[in-house]
Design a protein that fits this description.
CATH class of the largest domain: Alpha Beta
CATH architecture of the largest domain: 2-Layer Sandwich
Helix content: 40-55%
Shape: globular
Radius of gyration: 20 Å
Largest sheet: 6 strands, antiparallel
Number of helices: 11
Low-confidence stretches: none
Number of domains: 2
Order of helices and strands: HEHHEEHHHEEEHHHEEEHH
Number of strands: 9
Mean pLDDT: 85
Structural class: alpha+beta
Length: about 260
Amino acid sequence: MAQLMHQDQARSIKRTLEVLEYFDEYKTRASVGEISRELGYPQSSTSILLKSLLNLGYLAHDEKTRTYSPTARVALLGRGIRAHILGDGNLMAALDEISSKTGELIFLASSAGLAVHYIYVIPATNPLRMHLRVGAVRPLTGSATGHLFLSIRTDAEIADIVRRTHEIDESGAQNQLDEVMRSVRKIRKKGFVLSTKTVTPGGGVLAMMLPLRFDSQAVAVCLGGVASVVVENADRYARVIQEAIARHMSGLPKV
């Protein structure tokens, strides 16, 4: 019984955060049905959740349009820690510059446990573009961005992460370790990862670690787009990212 209650609480917390991220990424006003369809929740559960956020002061409700919108309370969430973690706007300025000079999807990634989490997204402006939702998760050992984070670990730590990912299948662990280490060696040599093996068919990703840590957290800046375009422009895109980081973040203390 206690375990079921814990699972219900965890699901409620997850859905609450996903609703707030939905408003942050997509629009400032949405109906129960729109949120239910986009996030894949039952409409009845979505309605209860939105009413709870309304009662707590995080959402407002328009009776005429039957839509919900975030309040100023949501806008102020994280106000006290944003500068501490993200460098008082320097990082955002660098990302805006990368976006304006490439037109591609720009996003930030951080690692937690055995996964990579996409924590901030600037949508692409190019006619052909990739899409990504804040909160998307990829495995460390099974994604290009994950391999980037593994590249800053020791070989022994990488082996342990692969083993924990494949606790049941030891032969699968060894095969994947060989594959991961080949990828990691390339990343360490080049300083960034370039991959066309993405969840989005026909997509490509170029990513590199930021030279600074934010509150001890390693963060990567990533660029996504049509695979052929990303590959053709890989060197230019890498320079754009490096120059933006140097211009806007060189004065911040390294950790």
